[in-house]
Structure formats: C-alpha cells, structure tokens
Amino acid sequence: MVKVARKRVGKVRKEKIKVSRPMAEVKCAYCKGTGKDPWGVMSVLADCQVCRGKGTVKIAEPFEKCPVCHGTGVQYNTRLNCLACGGKGVLTVEGTEVCPVCKGTGKDDFRLYCPKCKGTGKVKA
Length: 125
Ligand SMILES: [Zn+2]
Ligand SMILES: [Zn+2]
Ligand SMILES: [Zn+2]
What we know:
By secondary structure, the chain is mainly beta.
C-alpha cells in the first residue's frame, strides 16, 4: 500500500488582485432600448447587434456620453454603429484633460474617431 503523502505547503497568497471596474448597465443607444435592429435591414425582428437583443449594454464606469455620435450610437450619416463607442452611446472616460488632438470632439478628420483619446475627447493628465 502506497500512501501518498500530501505535503501541505503553506499557501502563498499569490492571487492577483483583479482591478474590476464597477460596471453600469445602460439603455442601448443603438436600438434605443428596444433590443431590435433599428433599421430592420435583415428583418424587422432582427436583434440589435450592439446589445444582442437585450436592450441594455454594460459599460465600465466612469462613463460619459460618446462625443463622436452624440450618444446616438450611430455613425453620422450612416446606419453603422459608432466606432468609438461601438453603438452603446457611452464611453468609459479615464482622462481628465481635453484631448489636444481633437480638442475634445472625439473626432479626427481622417478616421471616424480620434485615435489619441479613442473618441472620448479626453486624455490622461
Ligand atoms: Zn441595442
Ligand atoms: Zn459613439
Ligand atoms: Zn482626441
């Protein structure tokens, strides 16, 4: 009979403390909370691609209204979801200073949103 000796090693606390941000649940801007595709392109019954039919989306706090789409979740003059916020209409804003590249608009002339501040209009000080 072989007895397996289980050595109890003093448990070293090595758990990484996950920086979990508080998440808020907000109404999906793209479908305005209906959970349906706002354009009904595929079908009027198609689920909203942003919230997948839930009508709400999760966003890490602190968040602000997306300056690129003005909180609509839709790219200006298109039916596509806003690239900066992904259609949520809100953006997690970590910066406190006005972005020097886009001057806080979140947009730039070439791309659909400012790469410097990722469309938030703010950068870290
Ligand atoms: Zn939606
Ligand atoms: Zn947006
Ligand atoms: Zn910017």
